[in-house]
């Protein structure tokens, strides 16, 4: 599956066309509509289900007002086609993946729906006002629901207004006064509907932008809360909060050739660096150390600063050979002066403890084991690694 599309809020809030209520940038409009599609599908699904259920109820009441044969048979066929169209749409709509396909399908369904509804109006015994009321309610709820884009609302409104006016004019049993009122009613409903539609689409887009910006801000805050401000490495809180994921990963890899490895790293004689060259140089060393580690692990692996000059490195899906090879390489790079802090007279060295993370481990058990290995490395003379015993 592709990555979920998002609107880039850094490049400024995208503006909205005033009358057609879509984003001015077509790509942003496309991303927005793809994200909105699941919600729209749910709405249309609900609407179709409502029509499919309510029409049989109307069929029962129709018998009271419908004209005699052949209109009764006509009405029955018309209602059955309605229900059939809704059922087909109910089956198809959950599978629609593109907003353009969705629009085309919706337009076809609504077209069939209104043609049948308009034809159905002839079957009522002069009770056109009742039919019109039902019709107007459906139109208004469609406009206001956001199912239709402003473009679709306008097309349907024009088509429906023209046909409805023609029907009103051809109805012999409506007097002139009633005809004028009906036409006036349709004009007002459709006009109000288009305005509702524009307002609705603008609101939905503005709300979407607001949500995007809030989502971005909350991600920024989360990242700030989980990062160490000096080195930008992940911090101890992040390690604690994500340990559940680490446990899950360890269980998943339990019977695998590859597993998870925790490495504790502690820079040797760091106090001396601070004392001899000052805190600023000490800070520089810490930043350069994190950069060097990050450059020598994969992007899925993680570096956490636990405090001071103490770090944890989590290697994912690797073997003991790879874990030790990576640490050996880092030790070699440090000894060759690759840290690149010019103020220092001799290379900075570091001691490491390495241990696999087991499915049965808790945060404490793994930290204790890896700390013991690190302590042994320090005790053995520093600038080396020790594998923790299980
Ligand atoms: N520059 C700088 N120093 C820090 C920071 N946090 C802790 N320190 C210093 O790191 C030093 C840690 O010293 P020790 O715990 O004695 O460790 P060490 O000198 O590296 O000795 P060993 O670990 O035994 O090799 C202390 O002097 C702390 O003040 C920091 O953010 N920046």
From TrEMBL:
What SUPFAM superfamilies does UniProt report for this protein, alphabetically?
Nucleotide cyclase
UniProt-recorded Gene Ontology molecular function terms: diguanylate cyclase activity
What residue ranges are annotated as transmembrane? 43-61, 73-92, 104-122, 128-145, 152-171, 177-198
Q: What is its EC number?
A: 2.7.7.65
Q: Which UniProt keywords apply?
A: Membrane, Nucleotidyltransferase, Transferase, Transmembrane, Transmembrane helix
Which segments constitute the GGDEF domain?
258-390
Catalytic reaction(s) noted: 2 GTP = 3',3'-c-di-GMP + 2 diphosphate
**Identification of the protein by name:** diguanylate cyclase
């Amino acid at each position: 599956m592709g990555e979920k599309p998002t609107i880039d809020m850094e490049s400024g809030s995208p503006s909205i066309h005033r009358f057609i209520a879509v984003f001015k940038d077509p790509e942003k409009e496309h991303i927005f509509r793809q994200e909105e599609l699941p919600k729209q599908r749910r709405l249309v699904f609900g609407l179709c289900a409502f029509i499919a259920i309510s029409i049989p109820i109307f069929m029962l009441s129709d018998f009271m007002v419908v004209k005699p044969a052949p209109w009764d048979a006509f009405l029955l066929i018309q209602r059955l086609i309605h229900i059939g169209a809704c059922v087909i749409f109910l089956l198809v709509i959950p599978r629609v993946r593109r907003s353009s396909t969705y629009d085309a399908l919706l337009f076809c369904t609504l077209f069939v729906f209104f043609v049948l509804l308009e034809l159905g109006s002839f079957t009522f015994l002069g009770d056109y006002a009742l039919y019109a009321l039902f019709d107007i309610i459906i139109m208004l709820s469609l406009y206001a629901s956001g199912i239709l884009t402003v473009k679709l609302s306008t097309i349907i409104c024009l088509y429906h207004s023209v046909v409805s006016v023609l029907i009103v004019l051809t109805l012999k049993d409506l007097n002139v006064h009633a005809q004028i009122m009906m036409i006036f009613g349709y004009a007002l409903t459709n006009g109000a509907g288009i305005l509702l539609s524009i307002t609705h689409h603008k609101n939905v887009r503005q709300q979407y932008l607001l949500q995007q910006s809030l989502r971005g801000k909350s991600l920024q805050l989360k990242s700030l809360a989980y990062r160490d401000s000096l080195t930008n490495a992940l911090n101890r809180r992040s390690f604690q909060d994500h340990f559940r994921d680490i446990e899950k990963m360890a269980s998943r890899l339990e019977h695998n050739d590859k597993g998870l490895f925790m490495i504790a790293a502690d820079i040797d004689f760091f106090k001396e660096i601070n004392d001899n060259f000052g805190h600023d140089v000490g800070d520089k060393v810490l930043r350069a150390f994190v950069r060097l580690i990050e450059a020598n692990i994969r992007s899925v692996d993680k570096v956490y600063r636990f405090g001071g000059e103490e770090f944890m490195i989590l290697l994912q899906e690797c073997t003991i050979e790879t874990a030790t090879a990576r640490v050996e390489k880092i030790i070699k790079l440090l000894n060759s002066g690759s840290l690149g802090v010019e103020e220092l007279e001799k290379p900075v060295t570091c001691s490491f403890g390495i241990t696999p993370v087991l499915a049965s481990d808790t945060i404490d058990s793994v930290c204790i084991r890896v700390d013991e290995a690190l302590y042994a490395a320090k005790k053995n003379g520093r600038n080396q690694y020790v594998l923790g015993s299980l």
